[in-house]
């Protein structure tokens, strides 16, 4: 089974590619706001910052390296947190386009989805009648036809370009149990070296459902497949964010929060910031007898190359 650690890594996903500006005034999309919220989340206890970019003019999803350049150096200068650059971004772009920001930045970590899947946000569109920007409603409604492509060839390409080429380690995002088997195959093929960092993801339409039985099943499967060669974390989307994170801490796992995954701080109450979510989960983690990992401790646990070896 995965190694029982003494410290809990908190990852904070700052803005993502699911929620739109209409849904919350707290969702950052201007580079200065992404930077400010990321730094505040790190100060609150997040040792890893999972980062997407947005078009600063209208908040739409961006994979333009120029947009990343406007906040990554600012964050690095202000905090020692591990910076994790998304390779997801738009679901409609090629893998080469999706990894362009990471190839420029050469970060310590990148996210990597471990399988193709339906990935839809279209039910969210029915909750709103007025929109801040014209693109938002169509973006959400049209997602019912999206396939988030992550073939074995795509995964091998990312491993070569970022893993071998830049010494990047990955947040292996697993939205279903089959993704764990995909990762095992890739490890057996020599694409990824242990320890791997697996993000169990629950509650995204198209992926495994947000049931505690599913969390236990994913954990048992990972133990069987990876033994002591992995660390794991839990992402619960929407209303299950805090309950799933709390359960993960008691099972020896790490946690992920942030406005990418949920806009709420409690049932019916929007979060004021990413830092508010980090503060809440840190309080829970510590009240339940665990200690929060520092960025340096997270680097050691995940065998990262170090912040001094990035390109920004």
From TrEMBL:
* Coiled-coil portions: none
Q: Is Membrane tagged as a keyword?
A: no
The source's domain of life comes to Bacteria
Q: Name one Pfam family in it.
A: BKACE
Q: Which species is this UniProt entry from?
A: Hoeflea poritis
* Alphabetic keyword roster: Metal-binding, Transferase, Zinc
Its recorded name reads 3-keto-5-aminohexanoate cleavage protein
Give the classification, highest ranks: Bacteria, Pseudomonadati, Pseudomonadota, Alphaproteobacteria, Hyphomicrobiales
Entry-linked Gene3D superfamilies: Aldolase class I
What cofactor does its activity depend on?
Answer: Zn(2+)
